[in-house]
Predict the structure.
Amino acid sequence: MAKKTNTKPWAKPMPAKQFALMRDILAAPSPIGLEAAMTYGVIKPHFESFMPKGWGIHQFKGNAGIVLDTHPGEDERTSVMIIGHSDKIRMQVRSISSDGKIWINTDSFLPNVIVGHEVKLFSQNPKKPGEFRVIEGGTIEAMGAIHFSEPAQRTGEKGIKQEQIYLELQMHGDKSKERLEELGIRPGDPIILDRPIKRGFSDDSFYGAYLDNGLGCFVVAEIAALLAKKKLKNLRILFTIATHEEIGRFGAAALAGELKPDILLGTDVNHDYDAAPNIGSKKMNSQAMGKGFTITHGSITSEYLNSLIISACNDAGVPYQHDFAGRDTGTDAMAAALAGIDSAATSIGFPIRNMHTITETGHTGDVLAAIHGIEAALREMDGMNGNKGLSCDDLKNNHPRLDLVKSVK
């Protein structure tokens, strides 16, 4: 008898066209506060290419976030907001020295992981404020050469400080500082890593910069495309691409506060604890790339909502893993709580390695599992209550009652 193989999407290599979309989303230059390259430049046109008649797109005054809404204005419907964040962690110009070094801050990067890598600097035209240009060909440096390092740095006993990091644009000659300033380079200008994703050596792996969190945005977009082909009957879905996550989840909080969803799902990268070096003493839960997406327990997450997702995934055979959080999920799943609105929320993740480096590494199967797992959960919720759909009363009346549990003997 021939051996059966799993033909589900998450058990197969990601198709080239789908991988190309994922790469385009991740590659969009969208540093914190300047996210429109991804939201307006890639994802909004993508939404418009397949959105059915009657769906609408919300845009906002204070940020470049967007929301694709399946039922605009129908506030009586039970609503589900699925959030990915478009902002990338970035470096910023601090000052320019007379020899042409551009001193920078490193934001959420470890200083040593960015040294030697190519970057893009975005600055405004000094003659036309608001008109941005990109400066390419620069690299991030710290000491210039091993010959100028301290003995302890050569052995690894001493690291590199943020204050040592600068952008090298190969300036030389007289008035290097003045020439850079004439280009419009000024404090606060954002700098991002230049490393589009590629397929990796190991099966279904891929690597590059900014999996955090173009992956969440890609998942939101792909779920939207699936539901556009076979629409839900009852639920209102808010496919949300938020901003400003990396500095406090401020974009998602603003959007949740504006649209007040009944259910909120944050989609973001997570950690591959099994492969993480130097954390053995922390005794983290087993969690690895290639074994499915993650569902978070704890913090503000709703166990009833989690149980609905788990049940749907079990029925569909979608692989998932369990993660936990204490006070804070660390993701846009916190958006409703931060906005002070009442939503049942949880955090969905994709285990990756090397987070906040230029070689973040993931598994396409985990990303596809999240897409199809969330789709399965939404369809199951849509069919509840005799095909009338999940109601707000269901959310209110199904909080776990630990006073009614039975003892295990």
Observations:
- Residues 142 and 165 are 5 Å apart (CA to CA).
- The chain has twelve helices and 17 strands.
- The mean pLDDT is 96.
